[in-house]
Amino acid sequence: MAHIPVLLKEVLEYLDPKPNQNFIDATVGDGGHAKEILKLTAPYGKFLAIDRDQDSIIRTRVNLEKFGKRVLFINDSFSNLKKIVEENKVKPVWGILFDFGMSSSQLEDSGRGFSFQKNEILDMRYDIKTPITAEDIINSYSEKELEEIFRKWGEEPKAKLIARAIIEARKWKRIKTTKELLDVIGKTVKKRSRLPARGEARHRRHPATLVFQALRIETNQELAEMEKALLAIPKLLKKGGRAAFISFHSLEDRLIKNWAKDLNKKGIIKILNKKPTTSSVEEIKINPRSRSAKLRVYEI
User: Fold this and answer.
1) DSSP secondary-structure letter at 263?
2) Whole-angstrom Cα distance, residue 260 to residue 254?
3) Count of alpha carbons within 13 Å of 272, Cβ hemisphere only?
4) What is the DSSP letter of 226?
5) Do residues 110 and 179 make contact, with C-beta atoms less than 8 angstroms apart?
6) pLDDT tens-digit profile of 29-56?
7) Does residue 203 carry a pLDDT above 80?
8) Count of C-beta atoms within a 10 Å radius of residue 287
């Protein structure tokens, strides 16, 4: 499945790219948003395409090849945003985009267990140099630690029961794959771990959704990385520059909202949409994954 950039029309309207302006995509993925921004910033606008996932950078190099030297590809975490901008001398910066969703390629082709819809190894690392995998977490964290991450990062109401079931299951053998973890979760919540049957609502939440979300966040330390990046933004954007954030769950959205509220009170940033912008009915029909997307935009 081809990657469809979420809220593309709205992102372009808010960031409002103009010829020769410099932009950053801190989570470039497959480059869907980047491609359209680059068209609007021709002929000389520079673009920093950043992603922790080396495979994403490889794909995006191909997807953005026609833009030549205008694009600088950086395989790094956006938590190092300030250092990346300084080292690459891309200034002034008119806009920064963060899309915290996962690309179709990561979900369907990575082989790293991001999705429970395929039986893959429990890896879940964006950056394969990260020392700890999701498998390590599932098989080495204590019951209390597992319960805490499921509750904190997944907001999973049955965190304690699922953590206890994992501890019991791994006494017999190491849990190595998404299917093995799925079976444990399915038995614990008394539901069959399967995809919705034909005719069922496709947006019904699978019983493993929140646990997999929590594992991915813990493996990649996602919210800690976000906090570091947020600190850098006011120092990087020029006056009048804008930062756009697309989040897909409440933890991300809450962190961004609270950061912005604090800086707005101090007069450092201006909130451009007090309520997050969401996908239209038409977009959701074309791209069901956009259903939970929320866009927040701020101006320095």
Assistant:
1) H
2) 10
3) 19
4) H
5) no
6) 999 999 999 999 999 999 999 999 999 9
7) no
8) 19
From CA 215, how far away is CA 199, in angstroms rounded? 30
Interval 181-210 mean pLDDT: 68
Q: How far apart are CA 73 and CA 76, in angstroms?
A: 9
Place of tokens 């935009």: 297
Q: Please report, for residues 33, 92, 168, 208, the alpha-carbon distance to residue 154 in angstroms, rounded to integers and kept in the order given.
A: 28, 38, 21, 10
**pLDDT value of position 207:** 76
**AA identity, residue 112:** R
Q: How confident is the model at residue 106 (pLDDT cuts 50, 70, 90)?
A: low
Q: 230: domain range?
A: 8-105+223-299
Regarding whether 184 and 134 lie in a shared domain, the answer is: yes
Total count of residues recorded for the chain: 300
CATH of the domain at 251: 3.40.50.150
Pick the closest to residue 248 from 204, 296, 200, 179 (CA basis).
Answer: 296
- Are 217 and 114 members of one domain? yes
Q: What is the pLDDT of residue 111?
A: 84
Ramachandran region, residue 283 (left: φ > 0; alpha: ψ -120 to 50; beta: rest): alpha
Above 70 in pLDDT, residue 268?
Answer: yes
Residues 132 and 67 reside in one and the same domain: no
Quick check: is 3 in a domain? no
- In the listed set 198, 221, 244, which residue is the last one of a domain according to the structure? 221
**Which secondary-structure segment (H or E) carries 97?**
strand 93-99
Estimate to the nearest angstrom the gap between the alpha carbon of 162 and the chain centroid: 25
Closest CA to 153 of 226, 230, 215: 215
